[in-house]
Amino acid sequence: MRSWLILAAATAALATGCQQGGSRGETEAGPEAVKDRACAVLAWALDSNQPRLASMAAETFMEADRLPPVEVLRGLAESADPRVRTTVVALLGTMRRPDLKAVFQQRLQDPDPAVRLAADFGLAMAGDTSEVLALRDALASPNATLRRTAAWLLGLMGNRSAVGMLRVRLSDPDAVVALRAVEAIHRLGGADGVEVVRDLTENERHEVRYYATRLLGQVGGTADIPRLERLCQSRFLDVKFAAIAALIRLGDLKRVNMLLDMLDAPNPSDSPDMNPRVLAARELGETAYTPAVERLGRLLAARDPLERTTAAAAILRIQSARQSWRTRVLADKAPPQLVPAAAPASGPRTGPTLPPLAPGPPPR
Description:
By secondary structure, the protein is mostly helical. It has a domain at 1-132. The protein has helices spanning 2-13, 31-46, 51-61, 70-76, 82-94, 101-107, 113-125, 132-138, 144-157, 163-168, 175-187, 194-200, 206-219, 225-231, 237-249, 256-262, 276-284, 293-298, 305-319. The protein starts with a helix and ends in a 45-residue tail after the last helix. 52% of the residues are buried.
């Protein structure tokens, strides 16, 4: 396990990419080489001992078409950080592998209830369907963190019968639970909760406004464009960029240059959470906009590990065959500013994949 991680980290540093699953018929500057480099950066992030980076990497691999070795993930399931353990155990669960039941059984003894719930999810995905009852019960828990986590995991499970119980949580007193429920319902093919999301874009809590803005571009429609245009004027960069990305997902490709330009912007703040390069990369990753990959690839050599990891996550999201269920943008179509003639458009790519509304498992 360690040798693989060391190799991957060294490969990332050399900008040559990891070898798993990549075609070597591409030149080093080609899209597959960039994807290899992004894979290597995320492999480094998994073993970085930085919980935010590790959970972001694990969450990204949930919807990627390549994975780290299972042995690596087994080790990370015992991470000291419960956020990492929750994400990694959930990732292992999405593999639907009965041979991983021992890992999930061990995590049922975890001191953190969210990790135990992820273990229940893993067992259910591995064939122990009775474990679904634990997720159902957690959805009604007095603990808001468990309700958030349960909604997230039920959305990953892919069982449409969960839509009914998720609808009950659309009026949850915890706004994040309601947003998780909307996301899960739409992931499972439902159409409920859009009005809840609209209302929460005006919530007094900044975190909630951001999540709701991001989700509105994924579950809303053209009727939401005026609201999103107003949100583009937000004084908070993350809300502003989420609104821009939402408009891109709804077809306004002219705005993509606003996010691309921010990849080269200076960081005027000491806060990593307000770094415009990180925020722009994160939202570009949600658009499936393939022409952005070359620009994102430049950030793979950034000094800031958060910039590198966020860019790598965005690249894998854009280039993976298993595109997010939330993708609306025509991935191969560029606006006139980027190519003289419009490239042939492909239909929106969808797939049964994960990401939560923000990197990592639901806020705790």
